[in-house]
Amino acid sequence: MKKFVLHLLVLSHSYSVPSLKRVCIDLLEQDRLTRENVIDVLQLARSCDAPRLSLICVRMVVKDLKSVSSTEGWKVMRRANPALEQELVESVVEADSVSQFLILILNNNIEYAASYFKHSENYMQFK
Fold first, then answer.
1. Which residue of 39, 88, 94, 125 could cross-link 73, Cys pair, CB 3.0 to 4.6 Å?
2. By the 8 A CB rule, do 6 and 40 touch?
3. Which domain holds residue 110?
4. What is the pLDDT of residue 127?
């Protein structure tokens, strides 16, 4: 089953077999995601209405964009779905901004962190 988990995910979604879909999603979330397949799994997760799996994939991309962006899956996605590429790059930038903000707070630079947050693009999202 592990060999065909992606195919089974698509089929279980297409034919509305929720128990099989859940098993497929669980397998993918636990141990089947790699830097080589994460983009393909992300696209399938989105088309098969698997938001948690999609989030896990995005987090994996954010964590290792350099490695993931060198894969064949990224190159294909880049041509077929440039909007997804843009969204993933923006997620990386946003995660980096939040990390910098948290580092400032942890280093007791509260005033500078408040200033950084207020003048960053993120401020507009929370305003």
1. 39
2. yes
3. 82-127
4. 39
Whole-angstrom distance, CA of residue 67 vs CA of residue 81:
19
Residue 7: Cβ within 10 Å count: 11
Query: 82-105 pLDDT, tens per residue?
Result: 999 999 999 888 887 777 656 655
| Residue 110 belongs to some domain of the structure | yes
Token pair 């990390």: residue? 99
Residues in the chain: 127
**How many domains is the chain built from?**
1
The alpha carbons of the chain give a radius of gyration, in whole angstroms, of 18
- pLDDT-based confidence at residue 31 (cuts at 50, 70, 90): confident
Structure tokens at 56: 């896990």
94 is a domain residue = yes
Average per-residue pLDDT for the chain: 85
In a domain, 96, yes or no: yes
Q: Are the beta carbons of 81 and 46 closer than 8 angstroms?
A: no
pLDDT (0 to 100) of residue 96:
78
Q: Is residue 34 part of a domain?
A: no
Query: What is the per-residue pLDDT for 117?
Result: 58
